[in-house]
Design a protein that fits this description.
Layout (H helix, E strand, L loop, with lengths): L4 H9 L14 E10 H13 L6 E4 L24 E5 L2 E6 L10 E7 L5 H6 L5 H4 L6 E7 L9 E9 L1 H11 L11 E2 L26 E6 L3 H9 L4 E4 L5 E6 L3
Antiparallel strand pairs: 1-5, 1-10, 1-11, 2-5, 3-4, 3-10, 6-7, 7-9, 8-9
Length: 256
């Protein structure tokens, strides 16, 4: 039986599912999360608007303290419906937890950003392999030397995800993903990883390594973990994000 986004969120809320969400509910949009005190919200919103490739906003709190985000789905609770969260103090990770009920405050503003897991369905539908799904691991993510535009204290370089393809398939992947700008759109680079500051594909900064076979080139997409780098640099006293690979699965269909 197919699991709906609501059913999956309920499984996550009960802590019966705490792993990465790649490949789950493939017809629905997944989202990255960043939660900040209201004093930082305007600068972070501007950072996202200036950097739409890694930070495409698909939803945000209507007012401080709002954790429901009804526009994204039925009975969403951002405090419980993501498999794992990271808690930051002064830009440093101090905890990784399966719910944030004890951390929630009335001054917090939540942002949900589109995730590349959402376009994996379209790649598969066109007959293109998604290597992290084939190998049953989290997608590899890397810090790069691609600078983001700064806004207030938020600054830093882009994080990217990587999926390997033969050159002809890479071109097709670019064409397919161009149709999905709200979930990072077309890749930002393919080929030599050192050109964007990645020294070793076998040592991702987040997620897991995947095989790159003979005749394949690595293809890199902007990643919604980028705000976590910006948070490290901005050093807000308090922040909560998703753990890389652990997304909010929304009720929004990928076809929109």
């Amino acid at each position: 039986m197919t699991t709906s986004p609501l059913q999956l969120r309920q499984q996550i809320r009960s802590a019966s599912m705490t792993g990465n969400t790649s490949g789950l509910c493939p017809s629905f949009v997944q989202g990255n999360l960043c939660i900040l005190p209201a004093d930082y919200a305007n600068d972070f919103l501007k950072f996202c608007h200036l950097n739409p490739k890694p930070c495409p906003i698909i939803g945000m709190s209507e007012k401080p303290g709002d954790f429901r985000l009804k526009s994204l789905g039925q009975d969403i609770d951002l405090r419980t419906d993501i498999p794992q969260y990271k808690v930051f103090n002064d830009g440093q990770v101090v905890a990784q937890v399966t719910d944030i009920l004890n951390y929630w405050r009335d001054d917090l503003v939540a942002f949900v950003l589109g995730c590349s897991f959402s376009f994996e369905e379209a790649l598969l539908a066109d007959g293109l392999e998604v290597r992290n799904l084939t190998e049953g691991v989290n997608v590899p993510m890397y810090r790069t030397n691609i600078a983001c535009k700064s806004a207030g204290p938020f600054t830093g370089n882009m994080v990217v995800t990587m999926r390997p393809y033969k050159p002809t398939d890479a071109i097709r992947a670019i064409q397919i993903c161009s149709r999905f700008p709200s979930v990072h759109g077309a890749p930002v680079h393919f080929g030599n990883p050192t050109e964007i500051g990645i020294a070793d594909l076998n040592q991702p900064d987040f997620g897991d390594k995947v095989s790159v076979n003979d005749g394949e080139v690595p293809v890199f997409w902007a990643c919604g973990v980028t705000p976590q780098v910006a948070v490290e640099n901005a050093k807000p006293a308090f922040c909560i994000t998703h753990a890389p690979g652990c997304m909010l699965v929304t009720d929004l269909p990928n076809s929109t």
